[in-house]
Design a protein that fits this description.
The complex is a heterodimer. Chain A is mainly α. Chain A has 2 domains: 2-267, no CATH class; 307-430, no CATH class. Chain A contains 19 helices and 4 strands. In chain A, the strands form 2 sheets. A two-stranded antiparallel sheet of chain A has the order 1-2. Chain A has a two-stranded antiparallel ribbon with strand order 3-4. In chain A, a hairpin with a 4-residue loop joins strand 1 (274-279) and strand 2. Chain A is globular, with a radius of gyration of 32 Å. Residues 312-431 of chain A have low confidence and may be disordered. The mean pLDDT of chain B is 90. The two termini of chain B are 13 Å apart. Chain B is rod-shaped. Classes of the chains: A mainly alpha, B mainly alpha.
C-alpha cells in the first residue's frame, strides 16, 4: 500500500510539474482515439478515413480547448453520415444542435462525458461511466451521460441501418428520416440504459456524500447493484436483451475503476505550477510558483562493501587514508571528490550541505556511509517539490587506498530518516 | 524591498484571477437580477431554436399525413397546441435556468468576496 501511495504522490508531482506538456499529450491521445474509432466504425467518407487527417485534427485538438475534441468528433460523424445520405446527416445535425442548445449551455465542462460515454460503449465497458461520474461529478452528470447514450445509440442505429439506407431510393428522403427517427424513439434498450445510468449516478452521488465510513466503497457497490437491478428489470419489462453476464462483469469492472478513482480522488484538486505576472508601484513580478508536495517515505538500504576485509586490514589502512582526507578538506565537495580520485558526490538541492560534509569526512571508507546518513536526514526533511534525485557514494577499501575503489549507487528519490546502526558501530570503532 | 508575504499573496490572487476567478469576475460585473435575466433570455432563445428544430423534424416525419389532412385538420387548434407546448417548454426550461444561474451567481459572489478580502489585506500591507 505504501508503494501505491508513493506512486500516487509521484504521479501527482509529475502531473502538477509538467501539466503544460501532459495535458496537450492527453488531449492529443483522446482526440486521436476518438477520431480513429469514429472512422473505424463509420468510415463512409474515404477522404476523411485517412491517418494524416486524423493526426492533423488530433494535433489541433491538443492545444485547442476541450470542447473542440467533441466538436471535431461531431463533425467527423456528420461528414460520414453525409457521405451515407444527406437525410441522415440532417437528423444527426438536428440531434447535435438540440443537445448543444439545451444542455451544453449549462455544463460545457461535462462535454467530455458525452464523448467518453459512446467511447466506453464501443469498448464494451459502459457501466463504468455512471459510477465514475457519481463519484467525481454531480447528479447533473446524469444528463451528460444520457446525451452520450443517445449519441451512441443513434450512431449505432445509423451504422446498423446503413445497408437499408443505401437501398432506399434517392428521392425517398421521408422514408430515410422515418427509419432513423423510429430507430431512435422506439429504442427501448436506450431508454432502459438511460434510466439505469441516471439512477446509478444519483445513488452513487448521494451515498458517497454521506458522512459514513467507507462511503465511497459503499456508494460504488450500491451503484453497481442498482445499475444491475434496473437493467435486469428493464430487460424483463421491455425485453431489451441485456447480457446478464456482461452486465455483471461490467458492474465488477465499474467497481474496480471506482476504487482506482477513489485512490486518486485527492489528486483531483491538485495544486499546479503557476506562472503569473503582476506589478506594483515598485516592481514587475514574474513569479513561477511550484507546488509543495509531502512525499511518502521509502526505506533506504545502504550497501556495505568489503566490510570483512576492512576489519581485517584496519590497522594498516589508517595511515594511507588520512592524507587523502586532508587533501579533500581543502577543496569543494565535488572538486574534492574528483581530485582525490576516490570520492565522487553527485547531489542536488538539499543535499548540498551533506555533500560538503562528505568531502570533509573522506578520511575513511566507512565515513562515506556517514555522509550518506547525513544526506538521508536532509532528504527526509525535503517536503518541497525539489527532492534529492541521485546520490553516488564511493566507498574506499582501506587497504587499497591509493589504487582501487568501489562504487555504491543509491538511487533514492525519497529516503526515510533511517540510520544504519551497524555503520555507526563501525564508525565509532574506526574512530 | 521585497515583502515575501505580499508576493505570496499577490501570486495566489493572480493565479485565482487567471483560472477560476476569470469566470467569476465576469459574473460579478452584473447585478443579480441583470445576470439572471440575461441568462434566462439566452436560455429562451436557445430553447426556441431547439423547439423550432424539433418541430421541423416532427413536420418532416409526419409530412405525408399533413399533406393528406391539410384541408381537414383544425389549423387553429393545431397552432394552439404547438404554442401551448412551446410555452410549457420555455417556462420549464426558464425555471431550470433561473435555479441554475441563481446558484451560480451566489457561488461566484461568495468566491469574489474572498478575493476582495485578500485585496483589502494586500492594501493594508502596502499601507504598513
Amino acid at each position: 500500500m505504501t508503494g501505491l501511495l508513493e506512486m500516487r504522490e509521484k504521479l501527482k508531482l509529475l502531473y502538477s510539474r509538467n501539466e503544460v506538456f501532459v495535458v496537450p499529450v492527453l488531449k492529443f491521445l483522446l482526440a486521436f482515439v476518438t477520431m480513429t474509432v469514429v472512422n473505424g466504425r463509420m468510415g463512409y467518407m474515404n477522404r476523411l478515413d485517412n491517418l494524416a487527417v486524423v493526426l492533423v485534427v488530433s494535433l489541433l485538438c491538443s492545444f485547442l480547448p476541450n470542447g473542440c475534441i467533441i466538436m471535431f468528433a461531431a463533425l467527423f460523424s456528420l461528414l460520414h453520415m453525409y457521405a451515407l445520405s444527406m437525410e441522415v446527416a440532417l437528423v444527426g445535425l438536428c440531434l447535435y444542435l438540440v443537445m448543444f442548445l439545451l444542455f451544453f449551455r449549462f455544463s460545457p465542462k461535462d462535454s467530455l462525458v458525452v464523448l467518453l460515454t459512446p467511447m466506453l460503449f464501443a469498448l464494451k465497458i459502459p457501466y463504468v461511466m455512471p459510477i465514475a461520474m457519481g463519484l467525481v461529478g454531480t447528479p447533473a452528470s446524469a444528463v451528460s451521460i444520457a446525451c452520450g447514450v443517445i449519441v451512441y445509440y443513434f450512431l449505432n442505429h445509423v451504422i446498423g441501418s446503413a445497408t437499408a439506407i443505401n437501398t432506399l431510393e434517392e428521392g425517398d428522403a421521408i422514408a430515410k428520416l422515418k427509419l432513423l427517427i423510429d430507430g431512435l424513439i422506439d429504442n427501448k434498450a436506450m431508454v432502459v440504459i438511460i434510466a439505469a445510468f441516471a439512477i446509478t449516478v444519483i445513488v452513487v452521488y448521494l451515498i458517497r456524500r454521506m458522512s459514513i465510513e467507507y462511503a465511497w466503497t459503499i456508494a460504488m457497490i450500491a451503484g453497481a447493484i442498482v445499475n444491475l437491478i434496473v437493467l435486469l428489470a428493464g430487460d424483463l419489462v421491455y425485453d431489451t436483451n441485456v447480457s446478464v453476464a456482461g452486465a455483471i462483469l461490467g458492474a465488477i469492472l465499474a467497481v474496480l475503476v471506482g476504487k482506482v478513482i477513489e485512490f486518486f480522488r485527492f489528486c483531483v484538486d491538485y495544486s499546479r505550477t503557476e506562472k503569473v505576472q503582476f506589478e506594483d508601484d515598485e516592481y514587475y513580478y514574474y513569479v513561477k510558483a511550484i507546488p509543495k508536495m509531502t512525499v511518502a517515505a521509502q526505506t533506504k538500504t545502504v550497501k556495505k562493501i568489503n566490510t570483512q576485509r576492512r576489519t581485517a586490514s584496519r590497522s594498516t589502512s589508517a595511515e594511507g587514508v588520512k592524507p587523502s582526507g586532508n587533501s579533500v578538506r581543502s577543496g569543494s565537495a565535488a572538486g574534492a571528490g574528483t581530485a582525490s580520485g576516490r570520492t565522487t558526490g553527485t547531489r542536488t538541492g538539499s543535499t548540498a550541505a551533506a555533500g560538503t560534509r562528505m568531502a570533509s569526512t573522506t578520511a575513511a571508507g566507512t565515513r562515506m556511509a556517514s555522509t550518506t546518513a547525513a544526506g538521508t536526514r536532509m532528504a527526509s526533511g525535503a517536503k518541497t517539490g525539489t527532492v534529492v534525485t541521485e546520490r553516488t557514494a564511493v566507498n574506499r577499501r582501506p587497504d587499497t587506498t591509493a589504487r582501487g575503489q568501489k562504487s555504491v549507487t543509491i538511487n533514492s528519490n525519497m529516503v526515510e530518516n533511517t540510520e544504519d546502526d551497524d555503520f555507526y558501530d563501525d564508525f565509532e570503532e574506526w574512530e | 524591498m521585497l515583502n515575501e508575504e505580499r508576493v505570496i499573496l499577490m501570486t495566489k490572487m493572480e493565479a485565482y484571477a487567471q483560472h477560476e476567478g476569470k469566470k467569476n469576475m465576469q459574473i460579478g460585473k452584473y447585478f443579480r437580477g441583470d445576470y439572471i435575466s440575461l441568462q434566462i433570455l439566452k436560455s429562451v432563445i436557445s430553447v426556441t431554436i431547439a423547439y423550432v428544430v424539433c418541430f421541423a423534424i416532427y413536420i418532416l416525419y409526419h409530412l405525408e399525413d399533413f399533406l393528406q389532412d391539410l384541408y381537414k385538420m383544425d389549423i387553429i387548434a393545431f397552432v394552439r397546441n404547438v404554442l401551448l407546448y412551446y410555452g410549457i417548454t420555455v417556462v420549464g426550461y426558464g425555471v431550470i435556468s433561473y435555479l441554475v444561474y441563481a446558484y451560480r451567481y451566489a457561488k461566484a459572489r461568495k468566491s469574489l468576496k474572498n478575493y476582495y478580502n485578500h485585496l483589502k489585506k494586500l492594501n493594508s500591507m502596502y499601507e504598513e
